[in-house]
Amino acid sequence: MSAASGTVDPAALISRIEARDAIVAIVGLGYVGLPLAMAYASAGFRTVGLDVDAAKVQALGAGVSHVDDVSDTDLAANLERGTFFPTHDVDDLRAADAVFLCVPTPFDATKSPVLDYVRAAAAAVAPVVAPGALVILQSTTFPGTTDDIVRPLLEAGSGMTAGVGFHLAYSPERVDPANATWTLANTPKICGGVTPSCSEVTRVLLQAMMREPGLVTIVGSPKVAELAKLAENTYRAVNIAYVNELAMLAHEMDIDIWEVLDAAATKPFGYQSFLPGLGPGGQCIPVNPYYISWKAREYDFHTSFIELAGDINLRMASYAMYRIHRFTTRVGVPLAGARVLCLGAAFKAGVSDVRNSRAVKVMELLQDAGAQVDFCDPLVATLTLGEHDRKAVALEPAAFADRDLVVVLVRNPAWPVDDILAAGVPTFDTVNALGEPSGALHERL
């Protein structure tokens, strides 16, 4: 404690971080938490990973990763070095100097935020937070979550005051699954603490896992950082909706939208390329805009533009089905009873995550239309469609030959374009994965 202020002196924690003596804890070992745990473990920090799923923890302890961006080899290396310790016992966090909360923040059927996981994590961690420790919320959420939800739970459970007895900050995750260029080690970060000291300790801790100095920016408050994260993802959602709507218009005008976008992309300023498709999937881009619109209602503010973008993106699966119906009618393939092979199930290439996958939505619509649906995806072995589990079909030339229709749902360099086109099967490409149509039996969105 500082004799002058009665508050915890951040210098001691900063010193331990810089010496790699600090213990880092990660609560939630999913697509955000596990890579973060590996980043700190690989940087030489003793890292404790907490998850409520005992089976997941057991698998991690045996060196088996469930996250695409974390290899079994890297996991095993950190286990062997003793820098990573997975657990489902919150008491193992008592010695932690810093605790990251990396739990899901989904929405419900009414597009309202579900913060049950955040509340549960904060309440569970509160009794074991050590004096002077740092707690960082990473989960994407609406402005005010850190101050109005996490802080009261931590203070009530710990008996300490944030910014006085322990440090508290918000620093949003910026994970792009399957992106080998921008990783945790080189993607700039932002953070906002409840006090300037909280912000500085957070900056030092985040910087400690990065390759280059100066990659962490401090903002004025947790609320600023929370809204900044929503601004980043909503920017993408809005621009994807714009180009999706433009694609629908271009089709009505009998104009090739892909040629249009290639032409527009030649402008070296004032334009950024976004591509049409089925709409964004995963746990961030399709969810985050609704966090803004939900919070805005508290201020009697209606985010018309943002909500419209979300609605356009949600409609793209139905629009794809409309186009597929027209295509199959033209080529003489009734969807009812048709043997359809869909390429792609995850929300993007290079991951196995099917949460909010628009590819899965199209498969469900195809099945509702009476089609017999099979799928290929290099990283998705099984998929539940309706009441039945489906196993992925092997990606080989024979898979295409006995089909009535092939539908490409995810852009993936793994697709054997020549084999698909050589099969002579009617093919509808929703994401321009196969390039310019090669004939009457090949159409793209």
Summarize the structure.
With 445 residues, the chain is an alpha/beta fold.
What form results from the Cα inertia axes? globular
Largest sheet: 8 strands, mixed
CATH topology of the largest domain, by name, is Rossmann fold
CATH superfamily of the largest domain: NAD(P)-binding Rossmann-like Domain
CATH architecture label of the largest domain: 3-Layer(aba) Sandwich
Helix vs. strand class: alpha/beta
User: First CA to last CA: what distance?
Assistant: 63 Å
Whole-number tally of structural domains = 2
Spatial extent as radius of gyration: 24 Å
CATH top level of the largest domain is Alpha Beta
Oligomer: single chain
How are strands sequenced across the largest beta sheet? 3-2-1-4-5-6-7-8
Strand content: 5-15%
Number of strands: 15
Q: Summarize the amount of helix as a percent range.
A: 25-40%
Let me know the average pLDDT: 94
Weakly predicted, low-confidence segments: 1-6
How many DSSP H or I helices? Answer: 14
Topology pattern, helix = H, strand = E: HEHEHHEEHEHEEHEHHHHEHEEEHEHEE
